[in-house]
Design brief:
heterodimer; A: alpha/beta; D-Maltodextrin-Binding Protein, domain 2; 2 domains; six-stranded mixed β-sheet; about 50% helix; B: about 290 residues; mainly alpha; MetI-like fold; about 75% helix
Chain lengths: ~400, ~290
C-alpha cells in the first residue's frame, strides 16, 4: 500500500514538474497538419511536450495587450505580426532573442521587421512567396495562351481573356480581411516603382501621392476599370472558382500549391519587368511572462533554425528564411518557388511590416478601389493619412 | 423598527452585487472616461482627444454628402437608426397583429424569432450569403425582375444598406415577440365596445391597439436603439466597415482605435461619445413611459 502511494505521489510530482510548452500559431486545417510534424520532431529530440493552440493574429491582437498588462501570456512561443512584436518589444513585454538567434544565418533582411534599434525581439520562421499571377497550365494550353513577357502582352492577354464567353473576368479578386488585394497592389508598386519603393513606403520616405506611387496605382486602377479584375469574392471561394475555370488568373502566395487538387498543373508569372517579389515570413516571439524562458528560447531557436525549417519546408507550401537548406528538401512544386526568390529581390510584405491602423486602412481602401477605380484620389489621400512619415 | 432592520439586511444582501457592479461596471466606465482625457504617455490633454476624434473623417465625413459613402461612423449609426428602428417596429407590430389568433401563427413567430436566437457573428455570415452575387437570395429575388446580380456588400453605395436590411431580419423577432405578448394584455372588452360603437378595424387599431401598446413600443424602441448603437459583430464579420469605411460604425471604430491602432485613449473617446449618444436618445424614451405612468 505504501509502495503504491509513494508511486502515486512520485507520478503526480513528475507530471506537475514536466514542462509543456504552449505554441500559438494561426494555422488550422491542412496548414496545421503540416506544422504539427515540426513540433513533434522537437518533442522527439528534446523530450519537451508542446501544446499547439490556434489563434489568428487578428484575435491575438485583442488578447495580448491586456494579458501583457497583467504580466501574463497565453503561450510560450507565439506567432504574430512583425509590427506587433516590434511595438511590444519596445514596451518590454517580449524577450530579446539576440543571444539565441544568429541573424547572419538568415536571408538578408529577413529579421529586419522584428529588430528595433539593433535588438532582436522575434525570429523569422519559414515564409511564403507572393510571386505573381497563377494560372492552370492546362487552361493556357487548351486556349493557346502564352505567358506575357511585356506589359503590352500582359494587357493583350487580359483583353483576350475578357472576350472569352465563359469567364467571369480574366483575374479573380480575393476578398476577405483584405490581404489578397493588398498583395496584388504591392506587386504593382514594386514592379513600376522598383523594389526600393517598398522599403521607402515602409519607412515613410515617400508619399503615397508622389508620382512613383501614383504611377503604379494608376496602372492597377486602369486594369480594374477595364473590367480585367473580377468582383471581390471571398478568397477561398475565388480560388475554387478560378480552379473551376471561372477566372483565368489569380494572384496568390505560394501556399496555393497546397490548396489545389493538382499542383503540377500550376504555372505562375510575375508582372513583366518585376524585379522584386514579396516574401512574407511568419514571425514568432517569446513573451517575457513565459513560465519556461529557457525552454521557450530553445524551442524558438530550433523552430526557426535549420532543423525546424527543414522539417517544415519538406511538408510543402513553405520557403525557408534560414540559409543553407538544401533544395532537395522541398517538394518539386515548392522547389520552383524557392528558386524564384533567388533571381530577384525578396521584399518584405508592405502592410504586414507597417501593421496597425495603416494595415486596416490600406486593406479597406483597396476594397474601395476595386469597385470604384475612379476614386483613386480619395483612396490615395486616406492611405496617406495613416501611412508612416519620416 | 422592523422596516429599519429589513433595510439593514437589504444592504447586506445587496453588497455582493454592488461590489461586482463597482468592479466590473462602474470602475471600467469611470476609467474609460478618465483615460479619454490623457495621451498615450499619460499626460493630461483636456479635450484634445475629443477634438481629434470628432474632426476625423472616420467619425463624420462631410464630403461624403456630395461624393457618396462613406459619411463617417457616427452618421452611419444615425442612418442605421433611421432605417432599422421604424422598420423593426412596423414589421414587428404588423406581424404580431396579423398572426394573432391565426392557426400556426406561433410557428411563424418562432421562425421569425430564429434570427434573434442566432449568434450575431453567424447572422453576419448569413447576411454575406444573402447578398452574395452567386449564392444570395436577394439576387435570386431581384433577378426575377431583371436586375443584374452583384455582391451588394462589396460596393460603397449598397454595403451599409445591405447590412441594415439584413439586420432587420435578425432583430424583428424581438419586436414580434414583445408585441405579441403586449397584445394579449389588451382586454377584449375594448375591442367589443369599439365594434358596438361601429369602429372599423383601422380605427380600432389606431385608437385602441397602438395607444395601449405604447409601453411595449417604448421598450422595443429603447432596446432596438441600444442594439443599433452598439452594433459591431455583424459589420465586423460582413464588411469589416468597408469598402473604404462605407459601412463603418462607432463600435467598430472603437475597436479599430483600440486593437488595430493600439491607441486606447482615442478608443476611450469613441466609447464616451457612444455612451453619451446612447443616453441622449434613450433617456427621453424612458422618461416618456415614466410620465405616462404618473
Amino acid at each position: 500500500m505504501i509502495k503504491k502511494l509513494t508511486f502515486l505521489v512520485l507520478l503526480v510530482a513528475a507530471m506537475s514538474l514536466a514542462t509543456t510548452l504552449t505554441v500559438i500559431g494561426p494555422w488550422a486545417g491542412t496548414e496545421m497538419d503540416k506544422f504539427v510534424p515540426v513540433l513533434n520532431e522537437f518533442t522527439k529530440q528534446t523530450g519537451i511536450d508542446i501544446e499547439y493552440k490556434i489563434y489568428r493574429a487578428e484575435d491575438l491582437v485583442n488578447v495580448l495587450p491586456a494579458q501583457f498588462l497583467s504580466k501574463k501570456a497565453p503561450g510560450d512561443v507565439i506567432f504574430m505580426w512583425a509590427n506587433f512584436i516590434r511595438e511590444y518589444g519596445k514596451k518590454g513585454h517580449i524577450m530579446p532573442l539576440g543571444n539565441v538567434i544568429n541573424s547572419e544565418e538568415y536571408l538578408p533582411g529577413a529579421l529586419n521587421a522584428v529588430t528595433v534599434n539593433g535588438e532582436l525581439y522575434g525570429s523569422a520562421y519559414t515564409g511564403k512567396v507572393k510571386p505573381g499571377f497563377w494560372y492552370r497550365k492546362s487552361f493556357f494550353s487548351e486556349h493557346g495562351l502564352k505567358v506575357p513577357t511585356s506589359w503590352d502582352e500582359f494587357v493583350g492577354l487580359l483583353e483576350k481573356l475578357k472576350n472569352m464567353p465563359n469567364l467571369n473576368a480574366p483575374i479573380a479578386s480575393g476578398n476577405g480581411v483584405g490581404w489578397p488585394l493588398s498583395d496584388v497592389t504591392e506587386h504593382f508598386l514594386a514592379t513600376f516603382g522598383g523594389p526600393k519603393l517598398t522599403y521607402d513606403l515602409i519607412e515613410g520616405n515617400i508619399l503615397w501621392d508622389s508620382y512613383t506611387v501614383r504611377n503604379g496605382l494608376e496602372k492597377l486602377a486602369s486594369l480594374i476599370s477595364k473590367g480585367y479584375f473580377g468582383e471581390p469574392t471571398e478568397w477561398t471561394m475565388a480560388l475554387q472558382q478560378w480552379w473551376a475555370g471561372d477566372y483565368a488568373l489569380y494572384f496568390m502566395g505560394s501556399w496555393i500549391t497546397g490548396m489545389v487538387d493538382d499542383p503540377n498543373d500550376l504555372g505562375v508569372f510575375a508582372l513583366p519587368g518585376a524585379k522584386g517579389v514579396v516574401f512574407g515570413a511568419d514571425y514568432a516571439f517569446v513573451p517575457k511572462y513565459t513560465k519556461y524562458p529557457d525552454e521557450a528560447k530553445r524551442l524558438i531557436a530550433w523552430l526557426c533554425g535549420r532543423e525546424g525549417q527543414t522539417v517544415q519546408v519538406s511538408q510543402g507550401g513553405h520557403v525557408a528564411t534560414v540559409k543553407g537548406i538544401d533544395l532537395a528538401n522541398y517538394p518539386p512544386v515548392d522547389r520552383e518557388i524557392a528558386k524564384i526568390i533567388q533571381g530577384v529581390t525578396a521584399l518584405p510584405d508592405l502592410d504586414d511590416t507597417i501593421g496597425g491602423e495603416f494595415q486596416t486602412t490600406f486593406w479597406d481602401q483597396l476594397k474601395l478601389l476595386w469597385v470604384s477605380p475612379d476614386r483613386l484620389d480619395d483612396v490615395i489621400n486616406v492611405i496617406q493619412e495613416k501611412a508612416p512619415r519620416r | 423598527m422592523p422596516r429599519k432592520r429589513g433595510s439593514k439586511y437589504a444592504a447586506f444582501f445587496l453588497l455582493p452585487a454592488l461590489i461586482m457592479l463597482a468592479v466590473f461596471v462602474i470602475y471600467p466606465v469611470g476609467r474609460t472616461a478618465y483615460i479619454s482625457f490623457f495621451d498615450e504617455n499619460g499626460t493630461f490633454v483636456g479635450l484634445k482627444n475629443y477634438s481629434k476624434v470628432l474632426t476625423s473623417r472616420e467619425i463624420i465625413d462631410l464630403s461624403g454628402f456630395s461624393r457618396g459613402f462613406p459619411l463617417g461612423a457616427l452618421v452611419h449609426n444615425i442612418i442605421w437608426i433611421a432605417i432599422h428602428l421604424p422598420l423593426t417596429i412596423i414589421l414587428g407590430l404588423s406581424l404580431a397583429v396579423l398572426l394573432k389568433g391565426v392557426k400556426g401563427g406561433s410557428v411563424i413567430k418562432s421562425i421569425v424569432f430564429l434570427g434573434m436566437v442566432m449568434p450575431m457573428i453567424v447572422g453576419g455570415v448569413m447576411i454575406n450569403f444573402m447578398f452574395d452575387r452567386n449564392l444570395g437570395i436577394v439576387n435570386a429575388f431581384l433577378g426575377l425582375f431583371g436586375f443584374q446580380a452583384k455582391s451588394w456588400t462589396v460596393y460603397p453605395d449598397s454595403a451599409l444598406l445591405s447590412l441594415i436590411f439584413g439586420s432587420v431580419w435578425l432583430w424583428t423577432g424581438f419586436s414580434v415577440i414583445l408585441y405579441s405578448a403586449g397584445l394579449e394584455t389588451i382586454p377584449k372588452d375594448y375591442y367589443e365596445a369599439a365594434e358596438l360603437d361601429g369602429a372599423g378595424p383601422w380605427k380600432t387599431f389606431t385608437k385602441i391597439t397602438i395607444p395601449l401598446l405604447k409601453p411595449i413600443t417604448v421598450v422595443v424602441a429603447t432596446m432596438t436603439l441600444l442594439w443599433e448603437l452598439k452594433i459591431f459583430d455583424i459589420v465586423y464579420v460582413t464588411t469589416a466597415g468597408g469598402p473604404g469605411g462605407a459601412s463603418n460604425v462607432m463600435a467598430l471604430q472603437m475597436y479599430i482605435c483600440a486593437f488595430r491602432a493600439l491607441d486606447f485613449n482615442r478608443a476611450a473617446v469613441v466609447a464616451v461619445i457612444l455612451t453619451l449618444f446612447t443616453l441622449l436618445v434613450s433617456i427621453p424614451l424612458v422618461r416618456s413611459v415614466r410620465d405616462d405612468k404618473r
